Amino acid sequence: MLRDLQNPDMFVPPKTDAGTIPNLKFSFSDTHMQLYHGGWSREVTARELPISTTLAGVNMRLTPGGVREMHWHKQAEWAYMILGRARVTAVDQNGRNFIADVSAGDLWYFPAGIPHSIQGLDDGCEFLLVFDDGNFSELSTFTITDWFAHTPRDVLSANFGVPERAFEHIPTKQRYMFQAEVPGSIESDKVSSPYGAIPQNLTYHLHQQAPIITSGGSVRIVDARNFPASVNIAAALVEIKPGGMRELHWHPNNDEWQYYLTGTGRMTVFAASGEARTFNYQAGDVGYVPFAMGHYIQNIGTESLWFLEIFKSNRFEDVSLNQWMALTPKKLVEEHLNVGPDLMDALQKEKSPVVKYNENE
């Protein structure tokens, strides 16, 4: 009953819903929580949300000084800082290194195979990690402690040129996440590489980007055009104010993976062949829209609805239903829909991603 109250438009769907569209929603609250000294993590992958084949997500928290140990993945990692501050490091295949502090609203991107680390600062941090493979699992990453634990000590001795006794106290298994001291200033942590620093910035201050302001909210778009390092993941941070709506649209380049940050909303997805289905979302939920399916998202709460639209692509692309109709011969549109001046005169040739609406009119 309580779950039905949280999902009123799924319990009593709109009359326009029809067909058998698969589940397009999963909450991080319904996942298995991995607890560690130093923080926690939980994930939504294709295991939890089978339709999510292109991207997987991890929600992670680090305490002050908490460390997500030095590791690397087969997949690229894109991240959005939700709360707090963290220090990230990386080293590329050319021996060039990178170190930066990130705050709420910042992004980072680590290409597949590039080793990196994350450590909480000050009051700790919480962030969303997104990987470009729906079957990814955070628990299958390559970690430095796991490798040391499964390498003979005589091999470690030969590799590093030190006696075997230097490895007497190494961990016997993967640490994954652990508690450490809060690091000092970033200047005190800097390491000079003879090959220099990674030339491309692996972080991006998304909240410092001037938003696209519309009648119903705002949008910030980030992809390889303004964050060149992010060659395989594009995103939009969307704000829908009360009474606003993410306009009817679709994406011509890939599936859409969503993460809801604040507020409550509902999304209806149109799948063609007479099929449509409505879902309710709130903070902590993951949404998904398969490739090219039409959809819209309404704010049904009293506060702004903030969420991320994320794509396995180097560019953010969407097609506006309103703009498409406005840029098509008028008589052709009228004959399709049996509509008149009330609609035709209101069509907009310029895209407005978030619009106002009044469901009582």
From TrEMBL:
Transmembrane segments: none annotated. It comes from Robertmurraya siralis. Residues 26-168, 204-345 form the Cupin type-1 domain. Keywords: Manganese, Metal-binding. One of its GO terms (biological process) is oxalate metabolic process. InterPro entries: Bicupin_oxalate_deCO2ase/Oxase (IPR017774), Cupin_1 (IPR006045), GPI/OXD (IPR051610), RmlC-like_jellyroll (IPR014710), RmlC_Cupin_sf (IPR011051). Mn(2+) 2 binds at residues 249, 251, 256, 295. It comes from the Bacteria. Mn(2+) 1 binds at residues 71, 73, 77, 116. Pfam families: Cupin_1. The active site is at 309 (proton donor). SMART domains: Cupin_1. CDD domains: cupin_OxDC_C, cupin_OxDC_N. Binds 2 manganese ions per subunit. The keyword Transmembrane helix does not apply. This is Oxalate decarboxylase. GO terms for molecular function: metal ion binding. The keyword Zinc-finger does not apply. Its cofactor is Mn(2+).
